[in-house]
Amino acid sequence: MSYPTVEAFVGNTPLVRLQRMVPPERNNRILAKLEGNNPAGSVKDRPAVHMIRRAEERGRIRPGDTLIEATSGNTGIALAMAAAIKGYRMVLIMPENMSTERRASMAAYGAELVLVSQEEGMEGARDLAARMAEEGRGLVLDQFANPDNSAAHYESTGPEIWRDTEGTITHFVSSMGTTGTIMGCSRFFKEQSEAVQIVGVQPEDGSSIPGIRRWPEAYLPKIYEPARVDRILDVSSDDAITTTRRLAAEEGIMAGMSSGGCLHAALRLEREVENATIVVIICDRGDRYLSTGLFEG
Questions:
Q1: How many C-alpha atoms does 189 have within 13 Å on its Cβ side?
Q2: DSSP category for residue 22
Q3: What integer best gives the mean pLDDT of the chain?
Q4: 297 has pLDDT over 90
Q5: pLDDT score, position 276
Q6: How far is the C-alpha of 179 from the C-alpha of 188, rounded, in Å?
Q7: Where residue 211 falls among pLDDT bands split at 50, 70, 90?
Q8: Active site residue 222
Q9: Given 62, 92, 99, 104, which residue has the most CB atoms within 10 angstroms?
């Protein structure tokens, strides 16, 4: 008998209906795509495995090579898992203010961590990754410019949602970090129906929401195509935190702050429409944020 490896269980995550946070009299549905059910606990499992798999197929890498990536957390954990599965050395560069659970998860999978200051942030992490690659210290998969990132969602996330909603989805709400999720899903949905509205979520000016970015122009992900997003909603840190706590307490779904930000935007959208099926990406699990105080208060 042949048994699958853990790689086979990336994707096909649950799509569940929110019961208490949506007023029943409005005849709208908000469906949550629970990406925390992936093996390494986030939506980033999909592009992590896909980027490595495609790089192998093109002959760019082979087991034993060193991979380098700048990450704020979830991509790093997912890449560390994928590297462990496939036999690569993984070097991850991240801001020092990321949660201890994230760092510990990466280390548990055998990754080497390199920290930059909070002030340098993700921009500094990306610059350091590029310098290390130039020095010949490894290959950067570059989630921000790699089309295999968005292709993972075009080939899996989008089709899963279309299948599970039986093509009734009217609005798709996703955070914007690397923008891989929203780019890949938008491309798929628009091929099925131009009527599906694609809504991106970013932090409002002055707010910080882990996993969602408002990039300076020079650091905009190269895979990002503005025309694929119909609307962008800004969310405050306070609203993201409050909604994350409500999601756990009222719906039994414990997730990270970026998911709360997405859901806050989806709830705002829900008040504007009728007879809608709104799908929101719940990016990861909340247990990797316990040390940050996210669920205290």
A1: 32
A2: S
A3: 94
A4: no
A5: 97
A6: 14
A7: confident
A8: no
A9: 92
Domain stop point among 116, 140, 164:
140
Q: Evaluate whether residue 196 is within a structural domain.
A: yes
Strands (E) in 150-262, as ranges, are 171-175, 197-203, 231-235
For 57, the domain range is 44-140
Residue 72, pLDDT > 80, answer no
Residues 30-61 pLDDT 10s: 999 999 999 999 999 999 999 999 999 999 99
pTM for this model (two decimals): 0.94
- Residue 117: active-site member: no
H/E element holding 103?
helix 100-108
Position 25: which residue type? E
Percent of the chain topping pLDDT 70 = 100
Among 116, 172, 122, 113, which Cα is nearest to 144's? 122
Do 114 and 191 reside in the same domain of the chain? Answer: no
User: Are the beta carbons of 209 and 235 closer than 8 angstroms?
Assistant: yes
pLDDT for the residue 214: 87
Q: Which amino acids are annotated as binding site, given as ranges?
A: 74, 177-181, 258
Asked whether residue 180 is assigned to any structural domain, the reply reads yes
Query: Does residue 148 lie in a domain region?
Result: no
Give Cβ neighbours of residue 206 (< 8 Å, ≥ 6 apart): none
What letter would DSSP give residue 212? Answer: B
How far apart CA 18 and CA 20 sit, in angstroms, is 6
Report how many domains make up the chain.
2
Q: Which residues are annotated as a binding site for pyridoxal 5'-phosphate?
A: 74, 177-181, 258
What is the sign, positive or negative, of the torsion defined by CA atoms of 287, 289, 291, 294? negative
Catalytic residue selected from 42, 44, 156, 186 = 44
